[in-house]
Amino acid sequence: LCIPQRRFYAVTLNGMVEKWDLDGVNGPTREVVVVARPHPGCILTRHLVSTPWGDLLQVRAILALRYPDGIAFEIYKVVPDGCKVVPENVLVDHALFLGLNHSACLPTQNLPGIRRQCMYFSAPVITHAFDFLLKLPVWGGARTYDLERSRFERAVPFCDLKELKYGIFPSEGWITQNL
Fold first, then answer.
1. Which of 58, 48, 116, 52 is nearest to 84 (CA)?
2. Region of 88 on the Ramachandran plot (φ > 0 left; ψ -120 to 50 alpha; else beta)
3. CB-based burial of residue 38 (10 Å sphere; 0-12 exposed, 13-18 middle, 19+ buried)?
4. C-alpha to C-alpha distance for 77 and 98, rounded to whole angstroms
5. Any idea where the domains of the chain sit in the sequence?
6. Which InterPro entries match (predicted)?
7. pLDDT digits (tens, 9 = 90+) for 108-134
8. pLDDT digits over 4-61, tens only?
9. Which of 31, 37, 86, 136 would be a feasible disulfide site paired with 70, CB 3.0-4.6 Å?
10. DSSP assignment of 119-164, as one string?
11. How far is it, in rounded angstroms, from Cα 115 to Cα 94?
12. What is the dihedral sign for C-alpha 105, 108, 114, 116?
């Protein structure tokens, strides 16, 4: 996640959030903002998203077999002493786009067809390497997750999971215009 002055934030799969400053006097510097903490569940992905109102969010996709789709999302606000759970209506009239190359929080009022309170995400290509993920029909490819209804949908037309061949998942990247 890039911000002005050649600084960016990164998150590890273990949950550590780092701030990197590329313009340090002695070269690039790294500061740990959030220390990695064990999570009781299986985390599938983590994303950092900056919001138009100035928050930095960490969005986690977790394996949650007690949910109808087998996956749940958790949204946290990154704060100096860790991560704080935020209400699911935190997005108001915005949508999240979660990808491995870039994540964005965009207002929906000028984006026809984009739904508010919704996450658009693409699952990593490596899903075929994990047997338990193949049992989850909502994982893989470009999907949406409606926070208000707690439901997954396909974001783009896609073949049935039974017909999948390795390597034909859509790209994990989102292309967004410069708003």
1. 58
2. alpha
3. exposed
4. 16
5. 7-154
6. F-box_BR-signaling (IPR050942), KIB1-4_b-propeller (IPR005174)
7. 998 888 899 999 887 665 554 555 555
8. 567 788 888 788 888 888 877 788 888 888 887 777 778 888 889 999 999 999 998 8
9. 136
10. EEEE--GGGGG-HHHHT-TT-SSEEEEETTTTEEEESS----GGG-
11. 8
12. positive
Give 165's contacts (C-beta < 8 A, 6+ positions apart).
none
Are 63 and 24 contacting, i.e. CB atoms less than 8 angstroms apart?
Answer: no
What's the rounded Cα separation, in Å, for the pair 170 and 161?
Answer: 13
Distance of CA 114 to the CA centre of its chain: 17
Tokens of 95: 């949508």
Sign of the C-alpha dihedral, residues 68, 111, 173, 23? negative
